[in-house]
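idk why but the lab printer keeps eating my pages so im just putting this in chat instead. protein + magnesium ion:
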Amino acid sequence: MPDENSSRSSLLSLPPHVGIIMDGNGRWAQERGQIRTQGHLEGLKAAKAMVKAASDLGIRYLTLFTFSTENWKRAADEVGFIMGLVIKYLKAEYDFARENRIRVRHAGDMAGLPEDVRKDLQETCEATANFTGMQVILALNYGGRDEIIRAFRRFALRAFREPGVDAEKFLASLTETGFRECLDNPDIPDPDLIIRTAGEFRISNFLLWEAAYTEYYISQKYWPDWTKEDLEEAIETFRKRDRRFGGLKSQSGETVHE
Ligand code: IPE
Ligand code: IPE
Ligand code: MG
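predcted complex ->
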């Protein structure tokens, strides 16, 4: 058992917010001569295990890239299968979420989801809203560009509700802080670490605004093969990164902001 101090210090260096681009389900299945949907089924098991692992480690926020705004381009049966898995996941994992005080949230365009998925997702988000453990954010029908456009619409609607706002006043009111408040989950801090499995070096429209200063970790493993040990390794690598946020590293080891 680690003593209180060492467990506290390891907790202090945990990335509070981890995002995962869970990629490679299809290739995992194809390499085994199986159909792509089998890979998504295995991917779901990996996602469940990862929620448990991240919660046990003490991660505060875990964003799982589950379905992008571009994934609708895939065959209808694959899309339908993934949506069915989401419903299954929400129903099957509620007890686990309650026992572990896990709050489930959504990022993305809720209005564009099929009615049954939307209903179950909204119900789960509401039922877990007061849980104070880890927050799991399901990025579902999520695209970073789409989020920015939706945020801009919210921002403009809010601004023009005020009397006497003309174009000049509107533009003057447009600040990073104010705009950020209009994103899908403004209370959640930006991701510290984004993991992508299956070896691709791209962001694929994930958290474009929020990931301005995020650290990236690319794993060659396909998502269904990803384990708690892999997560721990990613966190170990993250701990060694020197995050400067555009500032300079001071001699005391603190980042100089101004
Ligand atoms: C990730 O695995 C799951 C989703 C994008 C929904 P893929 O289905 O993209 O798997 P590959 O990239 O084709 O192997
Ligand atoms: C990103 O994976 C989306 C999710 C993991 C949900 P994709 O498989 O859609 O990304 P690309 O097409 O390889 O960029
Ligand atoms: Mg893929």
